[in-house]
Amino acid sequence: MARKPPAGDPVQDAPDVTAPPRAAAGLPAIGHTLRVAQQQMGVRRTALTLLKVNQKDGFDCPGCAWPEPDHRHTAEFCENGAKAVAEEATLRRVTRDFFAAHPVSDLATRSGYWLGQQGRITQPMYLAEGADHYEPVPWDRAFDIIAEELHALGSPDEAVFYTSGRTSNEAAFLYQLFAREFGTNNLPDCSNLCHESSGSALTETLGVGKGSVLLEDLYRADLIIVAGQNPGTNHPRMLSALEQAKAGGARIITVNPLPEAGMERFKNPQTARGLTGGGTALTDLFLQIRLGGDQALFRTLNRLILEASTSASGAGQGAVDEEFIAEHTHGFEEFAAAARAQDWDETLRATGLDRDGIDRALRMILDSRRIVVCWAMGLTQHKHAVATIKEVVNFLLLRGNIGRPGAGVCPVRGHSNVQGDRTMGIFERPAPAFLDALEKEFGFAPPREHGLDVVRSIRALRDGTAKVFFAMGGNFVAASPDTAVTEAAMRRARLTVHVSTKLNRSHVVTGARALILPTLGRTERDLQVRPDGTSSGQFVTVEDSMGMVHASRGRLEPASPQLLSEPAIVCRMARRVLGAGSRTPWEEFEQDYARIRDRISRVVPGFEDFEAKVRQPGGFTLPHAPRDERRFPTATGKANFTAAPVEYPRVPEGRLLLQTLRSHDQYNTTIYGLDDRYRGIRNGRRVVLVHPDDARALGFADGSYTDLVGEWEDGTERRAPGFRVVHYPTARGCAAAYYPETNVLVPLDATADTSNTPSGKSLVVRLERPTPGSGLTART
Asked: Can you tell me the distance from the alpha carbon of 728 to that of 694, in angstroms, rounded to the nearest whole number?
């Protein structure tokens, strides 16, 4: 049973729909976890892997970047983490016989779910120009092909080197080192698609583009605001941390257009109360905000805090931390003037909230000395995302909640090492100090011109100014916006290369030539051979969402003897492409990752004595100047208040504002299954969630079918056909549907100001009857 993937590609547009539950996890989560794990891995392998996930002597979960507590449960994983492990440690295999039986033209018609369910890729595969079948290729020949195409470029800037967040610190450091020694800063990564807006806003306002809190801060907080995030689906282990915070007296405000079961009530499967009792009610106040209204909400809260601080009654005494503002901040007067001018009517229009809800939030805020604000892509993927996050920072600065225990900013990252990749230099706009350190350490002059982010890389491939695309992990085609443009751009490349564990959509949307390079997973042992023929077991490191760095050691036998580790792939590629002219000891790095960490310790601040610190159980915490010292390395030398104009989406009559989101059975573009239990949806993905009153006003009954048509200010339209309408308690005027199915609706040029992140959380759409002959009209 465990070895066999689904026989056919299932229908995904005819789901069963029931009322969404009002609690998450509990016994059903355990049952589902074990069922999926055993289907993929079998009983023995399930036990071997799951008991080592996120343990101090084990491997880091390949799923999300939520940190591990110091005292860990035996089962320190969530349902979705178990699914990620099961898919990587699966017994299913994709061999040369599979590729012989399935031409690329056939694979291109398959769903992402079907492709991913086929199993682990076992050997390097090559698609020759004009061919329709991948064929096996020796590793040496694969690196020769890469070298041929890179050497044929007119400039190193005609190559693009993309990185997924699951890449280890060691592999990421080597990857950026290779790209820069080759001569380009074209290092787009998945941060460009998700939290780039957070980094842009936090770097300008606080001087560090990362969160400022640790797990202990959540436990010590008086108030936690969770805005634009669904931990129950995207970061389930966060629910345990919120439960512990509640036990310590914290209150929680949830700001979200959708009610989410996990934030309503959490039945912790690691406790008796969670398994047999009622669980823990997490949310104390739910603000069901209209999509894109978060900046207006926080601006209004800031206005009300300022007004409370000058109240004649004295009720708001201490509402503003005047000492902190005077000593540590810049720009307060301009910010305060903008906040005091915020209009109530505009706030209510932008947020869809009422004054009572906002007043209740204010009372909770004024009663709290230590406040943490957590957010994810619900804040980062709007045109005005950077301005929104700056307003969140204003909110925290106003009451001195940066650099105070139990308080701070908490952008919750997705992939398990997406933050570490950036720390290691995966960035198209590197800091001069980082390039100086590279030059000093490795003796070559890195390029200084800024490179391409994701959106600009797609444009360059589309326009023919980029010709080679190399991806270290991920599923670039499915993760990127404007699906038709992205796929056409990839097909214009001379060569596309993907370092992968499993099949995905990016392997079937190729350049003239294509390579799939199979790599070790987090769960697998990494043995590197020394010159004398002996082997040495290696480990890698990752950085979590809160700046903790720790080791990851796989235990399973590799899925195939032909797999290479990511560091080994980079080192061998570098030796073949750069040749004898490179002074970098690539062969030494491949044989012993401690040598990589030694160089990282001399290049990357905070990693001094890296090898010794990471060998300590649990790893170590990176320094964070605003948190640790209330020191702000910004242009002004202080934390910066800002006063951006308030923005929010305007929606014409008869239209809805659509957000893209994940189901509970997926992680980013990886589809584990076709159920979304916490929203009452089973056996389907092509659904659009619409408030019943909005749906009826537009003439769509529950269960009817629609095409989603995106409308843009330049007059262009994009269509995603065949979605089942689900009456759902969303915020009025808003709707939701899963990505990557709806990425087609996001134009390449629809991005956040400053960060250039695709704005997939505020799409103006109309619902249109399916085209006759589509096969869906009979169901409407």
From this structure: 10
